[in-house]
Amino acid sequence: MNDYQRCIVFWDSIFSEQDDTVPNGLSSGNAVLDDAIGWLAKDSKRILDFGCGNGALLFYAAQYGAKSHLGIDLSEQAVAIARKKATNMPCGTFEFRQGGVDALSEVADVTYDAVMLSNIVDNLYPEDALLLLHECARILKETGKVLVKLNPYLTQEQIVAWKIKTISDNLLDDGLLLWNQTTEQWHDFFRTCFVVSHECEIYYPEQEQTNRIFYLTKHGM
Question: CA angle at residue 98 from 96 to 204, to 5 degrees?
Fold first, then answer.
């Protein structure tokens, strides 16, 4: 079983236990995330979420005014529950597809206003993450925006203490895949295709974990 297949098995087990409840209102329960979704959805009619999971972020975006939504995820169970949830949404149109980065090749050039990448870029092999970034740049309109959320950076002390395996360099096996880059390294990575217009942290008290959020825009804006 390769690393992506392990991810599929893990997330299939998670999403197979979820119901078809959809968000009711604009608040996700986290003000930082709400602000980020609001920024992405403003003036965005078409939004794509790669690594969409159960579609929750797209459902919030629809309530902020986005009209057309496409979600892509490796997990078949995630796509199945997202499709069920979509039938309960009072606004917006939704399409969900099962697939990896290669599925983006089926999306036409310059057709989306915004892209969501929530805890997915750093869960890919670096070469796939770079392909994903270039595909996002290709499918976005000139005024396009990208919202990226990343896992926290792990220090060497944490890696040792938690007995996390190193695959190569800063690519880790934490049960799934984790491309463990510093915030400065991520800035350099995103600048290959985008401008970082804002960066902040988001705290999840239930996991006692702080994620990183980046607001990206296309060059020339």
Answer: 75
